[in-house]
Write the structure tokens for this entry.
Amino acid sequence: MKALVAGATGETGRRIVQELVKRQIPVKALVRDLDLGKQILPPEAELVVGDVLNSDSLTKAIADCTVLLCATGARPSLNPSGPYQVDYEGTKNLVNVAKTQGIEQFVLVSSLCVSQFFHPLNLFWLVLFWKKQAETYLQNSGLNYTIVRPGGLKNQDNSEPILMSSEDTLFEGSIPRQKVAQVCVDSLFNSEAHKQILEIVTKSEAVKG
């Protein structure tokens, strides 16, 4: 197994890279800025320069990989086309290249509530809407996939257990990015996660009881 991580310098992507390295899985990190990648990613990761909006760069990056984990996402900005370009067109490009390169599994980090068009987050240039369109494109691609929909993302890890549920059943809650990374990497080894949408948050034992 060799993994390509798209969005590797993002807060979630870098944790996915770290998790893969920790488990001694060879990993290529797709970065737009090589210097930034060198600063924040583990030295064991192979850095490859590319952009999800440039399919040619993706073909070179993905060449010797067997699995792909996508943690890209449009950063909040005043550019109304950001979510359309990054969350939809960028993911589409990754899916198309993954198909031509025989990728065995495509793990996509999406978001809770993508099916709710009138969710407040869609005020940010329809970000959830475009994530949902990317999910649908991946589902219809013929690739083996796992779609991970986390709740609100936290940089600080915690000891709360993960609550995992099926499509469109969780609508609130949060989860540390570290745990999202663990679920993404776990899905590479769990056939029950194939062709599934996993919704995840953390819940304290007190809440559970």
Remarks:
- The first strand starts at residue 3 and ends at 6.
- The two ends are 39 Å apart (CA to CA).
- The mean pLDDT is 95.
- Residues 82-100 form the longest helix (19 residues).
